[in-house]
Amino acid sequence: MKSLRNTALGLSLVVASAPFAMADGHAKELTIAIVNNGHMINMQKVAEAYTEETGVKLNWVSLEEGVLREQVTSDTATGGGQYDIINIGMQEAPIWGAAGWIEPLEFGADYDVEDILPAMRAGLSHEGTLYAAPFYGESSMVMYRKDLMDAAGVSIADNDSWENVKAAAAAIHDPDNGVYGACLRGKPGWGDNGAFITTVANSFGASWFDKDYKPQLDSPEWNAAVNFYVDFLGTYGPPGSEGNSFNEILALYNEGKCGLWIDATIAASFLEVDGVAYAQSPNAGNPVGANWLWAWAMAVPAGTPNAEEAKAFIEWATSKDYVQAVGNHPDFGWGSVPTGQRASTYALPEFQAVAKFAAAEMAAIDSAAPEATDLKPYVGVQFVAIPEFPEIGSAFGQEMAAALSGAKSVEDALAAAQAAAVAIMDEAGY
Amino acid sequence: MAAVTERSRLSDFMWPALAWIVALVFFFPIFWLVFTSFKTDADAVKPEHLFFFTPTLENYTNMTENYDYWRFATNSVITSTFATLFALAVGVPCAYAMAFNPSKHTKDILMWMLSTKMLPAAAVLYPMTFLTKNFLGIFDTHFLVILVLCLINLPIAIWMLFTYFKEIPKEIIEASKMDGVTTWGEIKDILIPLAWGGVASTALLTFIFCWNEAYWTVRLTTVDAATLSKLIEGNRAPEGLFFGRLAAVSTAAVGPIVVLGWFCQKQLVQGLTFGAVK
Questions:
Q1: Rounded Cα distance, B203 and B83, in Å
Q2: What is the set of domains in chain A, with CATH numbers?
Q3: Is residue B196 one of the residues assigned to a domain?
Q4: Which of A168, A317, B82, B275 would staple A154 via disulfide (CB 3.0–4.6 Å)?
């Protein structure tokens, strides 16, 4: 069995590195700035075979997300060269691509760029040009305790209404026995409560800006969405929800304390309780933007002298063959392959066997809509792809946490967030 | 008389008890850090596993498997040691000159040196990156980290040394001058032996500051000169803080300096509380 596995591993590594035989003989070093994501940490081990095959030495530099952004921008501003490959998120990819800070990516036919999930391709492109290749992607969906729902005689459907979801949460809410109807993000931060509340707001027909980029947080749709969120989580959520984000809720869920959880699809792979079922995100009449879309991707910063080698590495690291290499790796296996990236991964029987959530995750990613629409005239689902958004989103997150904790009314919190957004956008010259 | 004895007994008990309480309060974060490092990430946030859990070395194993801990640790030792030595090499003559041959601007110079600590580091991030990367070509080198650590700690080192040197009677230095001792001889044979406690505590504190520095060591390095601060920084995941693994990395990063402080606490306390000359 072991020799079979090793043969499969060897074969997949040979296949994976075949397109890059050209790089052999150009032994160089690539410095790669990564975020501390599990898939990237695993890649360091899997890529030892790439170094063996091509002679390209890989230096991995793990950085906190904010520090990574800061380092990359200061490196770019000083002519580049510090890093050859960088991890960036979906928020930066189109902005940095438009600014010329990262290089456009074009790969050979074997790479099969069409196999990258369309929503991911769209979110990592600017004007049709791909600027970053995803190594991991996610959307959001409902993960709920079907056993509790069945016992209470309620159910949740795909793309259900928020009112039905709230009623289901109410039916299983049993705080005396340590079960809370709904666990949702409340911790302040544009990627924390900001991300979730934005999807709720989208589903209520709200948008961050109008077509002239004037903030719209004072609209009736925002008011309705945030009132619903505060009431829902305040009534059926665990105490102290304003301090909860992904990690905290994951721990609560695995302790059996959450009836339902709406969060990143990747969470499904960490759930340890029995009786979990999945549903597509609920909405209040507008399903577009009700589920978020995020990817961590690899890009080549402008100014690196090793651009060709860097692109060759990215082509390998985000290829179908890399997925095989991880799946067949003795230290990892099919439960560790990068998800939310390629359609072909979801078709693999080995992956389907270990990922019960695969179909729901792919449906969620497929239905995510980062493109600009009439209602939402900007790129992005749970964020807006403009440089000012992180600052606006952070201020918004603080106000929402204050509303959730009861320190402020929803109206006051939204008014304060609107004032902050207007000030930031005015200063930026919109 | 009886009341005095009773009060004395009470204070005999009170002060040590208070000292223990204060010591425990200060030690608690270190204890909790080490304690948490033996929990899984899941146990680290579960209230029911606050004190009772199954200890694991998983976080330490992952750290050594996924990161080159020894490279980061070696860089920290090299940069902190040399930065401290250079800070003393510059600081001792500087403090000597200001303590024994003050000019009318000595106080202003001391204040100016201290005022450089008020400069927000972020304000000079771009020029520092540009100068060291594009102009001097010393970005991500031990030399740069040593230089920066030395310079940012120099004002504190000079201030501390100046305070200790000021306590040495000027007459001793003057007498040695009369005996024909050179300036270097005054520093080496008279000043440093007399102010040894102060010099040692200055060196220790400078070393601790260098070891803990995280703004520049993270931003002016990539691979070759990256210190333990960068290892900690890199363990903050985008999904949030995984306390078990962060505690393990932090324990491994602060461990050496805590041990060093423990062994040198006598000199440290002596130097900080009594000054150089009693």
A1: 10
A2: 2-137+294-354 (3.40.190.10), 139-291+371-428 (3.40.190.10)
A3: yes
A4: A168
Q: Which amino acid is located at A126 in the chain?
A: H
Task: Pick the residue from chain A with its C-alpha nearest to B43.
Answer: A251
Q: Quick check: helix, strand or coil at residue B116? A: helix
Q: Which residues of B touch A304 (CB under 8 A)?
A: none
B45 has a chain A CB within 8 A of its CB: yes
Query: A77 CA to chain B: closest CA distance, Å?
Result: 8
CA dist., res. B218 & res. B226, Å (int): 7
Q: How many domains would you assign to chain B?
A: 1
C-alpha A51/C-alpha A39 separation (Å) is 18
* Tokens encoding A271: 């759930």
pLDDT tier for residue A154 given thresholds of 50, 70 and 90: very high
CATH number at residue B157: 1.10.3720.10
* Shortest Cα–Cα distance, B220 to chain A (Å): 9
Please identify every stretch of chain B with a pLDDT value under 70, giving residue numbers as ranges.
Answer: 1-6, 271-278
Cβ within 8 Å of residue B121, ≥6 positions away = B215, B216
The reply to whether ipTM tops 0.85 is no
Residue B50 lies in a domain: no
Residue A395 contacts residue A217 (beta carbons within 8 Å): no
pLDDT digits (tens, 9 = 90+) for B6-22: 677 777 888 889 999 99
Contacts of A71 in chain B (CB under 8 A): 219
Would the pLDDT of A17 be above 80? no
Dist CA A105 CA A92 (whole Å): 15
Contact flag B240-A247 (C-beta cutoff 8 Å): yes
Judged by CB atoms closer than 8 Å, whether chains meet at B235 and A35 is answered as: no
Residue B45 domain-assigned (yes or no): no
The minimal CB distance from B234 to the residues A36, A70, A78 is found for A36
Give the pLDDT confidence score for residue A23 in this predicted structure.
42
pTM of the model: 0.81
Contact map slice: B 86-125 vs A, CB within 8 A = 125
Residue of chain A nearest B235, judged by CA positions: A36
Instruction: Determine the distance in angstroms separating the CA of A423 from the nearest CA of chain B, rounded to an integer.
Output: 23
- Among B42, B230, B236, whose Cβ lies nearest the Cβ of A254? B42
- At residue A335, the pLDDT reads 86
Tell me: the pLDDT tens digits for A375-426? Answer: 888 989 999 989 899 999 999 999 999 999 999 999 999 999 999 999 999 9
Please report which confidence band the pLDDT of residue A15 belongs to, taking 50, 70 and 90 as the band edges: very low
